C-alpha cells in the first residue's frame, strides 16, 4: 500500500520569541514493512541547525526559532510504501541495549491500578505472544478511549486510575505492565490511515514488545490489533518523551497555542 501523508504543526506565540529550539522527530525511515518513497519537511519561522540519528535510531532534526518570530510552522509531506507483516518488525538497528527497555520511566512506572490489570492475566507466561495480546485487551477494557481527559504529562498509572485515556495512555499502561513482567517494550509514534476519514487531529501511538524468535512485535492497544499496512512508524523510545514528534523550549514567547492538521490517505501507485 502507498500512503500519502501531509502533516502540519503550527505554533503561535502571543509575543515575539527571543530564543527558541525545537527537536523534531518527523522523518520516517526504511524499516521492516515500510519504505519511504519521498519525504519533505518545510519550515517557516525556524531554520535547520543539524540533522542526526538519535540513540533510538530516530531521524532527528534540531531547529532554531528565528528571533522575533510570532509563529512557527512545520509542514511534512511524503509518501511511504507499506506492507502487512502482522505486526512483526523483527530486529531494528539502534544504540539502546535491550535491557534498557525493561527500565520504567515516570510515565510508565506501574502502581496499584496497573498492577491490578496485570493480575487479571489468565495466559501462561511461557506463551509471551499470547500473554501480550491478552494484556492489550485487558488495558483497553479497563481504560476507555476518550479524548480531552488526559495530557502529555499524564502517566500510565494516572490514566489507569482515571479509567479513560487516548493512545498515548494505553501505550504507557501496556509498557509499564509488560516491563513488570520482564518483557522489553517500547513506545512508537507514527501515523495511521483511518477507514472513515482522511483528516485527523493528531498522529498515533502504539507499542512494540520484544518476543523471542520474532524480535519486536507491534500492538495497537487502542484499536485492539497489531499494526498492518495502514501504519507508518516514525519514532521509538522508552516512552512518549523520547519519541514525541516535537519537543522544545522558547523564551519571550508569552502564551503559546498549537494547531495540528494531519491527512493520511491511500495513493494509487500510478499517481
Automatic annotation (TrEMBL):
Q: Which chain regions cross the lipid bilayer? A: none
User: Which residue ranges does the record assign to the Transglutaminase-like domain?
Assistant: 159-223
Gene3D superfamilies, A to Z: 3.10.620.30
- InterPro entries given in the database record: Bac_transglu_N, Papain-like_cys_pep_sf, Transglutaminase-like
- The domain of life for this entry's organism is Bacteria
User: Could you tell me which PANTHER family the record lists for this protein?
Assistant: BLR5614 PROTEIN-RELATED, SLL1049 PROTEIN
Write the protein's name: Transglutaminase domain-containing protein
Q: Write down the species.
A: Novosphingobium aquiterrae
Amino acid at each position: 500500500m502507498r500512503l500519502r501523508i501531509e502533516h502540519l504543526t503550527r505554533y503561535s506565540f502571543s509575543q515575539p520569541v527571543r530564543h527558541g529550539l525545537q527537536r523534531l522527530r518527523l522523518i520516517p525511515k526504511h524499516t521492516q514493512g515500510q519504505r519511504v518513497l519521498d519525504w519533505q519537511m518545510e519550515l517557516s519561522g525556524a531554520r535547520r541547525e543539524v540533522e542526526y540519528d538519535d540513540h533510538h535510531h530516530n531521524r532527528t532534526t534540531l531547529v532554531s526559532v528565528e528571533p522575533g518570530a510570532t509563529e512557527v510552522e512545520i509542514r511534512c509531506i511524503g509518501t511511504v510504501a507499506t506492507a502487512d507483516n502482522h505486526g512483526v518488525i523483527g530486529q531494528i538497528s539502534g544504540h539502546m541495549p535491550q535491557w534498557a527497555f525493561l527500565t520504567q520511566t515516570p510515565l510508565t512506572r506501574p502502581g496499584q491500578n496497573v498492577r491490578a490489570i496485570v493480575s487479571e492475566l489468565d495466559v501462561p507466561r511461557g506463551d509471551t505472544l499470547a500473554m501480550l495480546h491478552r494484556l492489550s485487551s485487558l488495558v483497553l477494557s479497563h481504560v476507555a478511549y476518550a479524548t480531552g481527559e488526559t495530557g502529555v504529562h499524564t502517566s500510565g498509572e494516572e490514566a489507569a486510575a482515571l479509567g479513560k485515556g487516548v493512545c498515548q495512555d494505553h501505550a504507557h499502561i501496556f509498557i509499564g505492565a509488560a516491563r513488570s513482567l520482564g518483557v522489553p517494550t517500547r513506545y512508537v509514534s507514527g501515523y495511521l490511515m483511518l477507514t472513515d476519514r482522511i483528516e485527523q487531529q493528531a498522529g498515533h501511538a502504539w507499542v512494540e514488545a520484544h518476543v523471542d524468535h520474532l524480535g519486536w512485535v507491534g500492538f495497537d492497544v487502542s484499536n485492539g490489533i497489531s499494526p498492518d499496512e495502514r501504519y507508518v512508524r516514525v519514532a521509538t523510545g522508552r516512552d512518549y518523551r523520547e519519541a514525541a514528534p516535537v519537543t522544545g523550549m522558547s523564551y519571550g514567547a508569552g502564551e503559546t497555542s498549537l494547531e495540528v492538521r494531519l491527512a493520511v490517505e491511500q495513493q494509487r501507485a500510478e499517481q
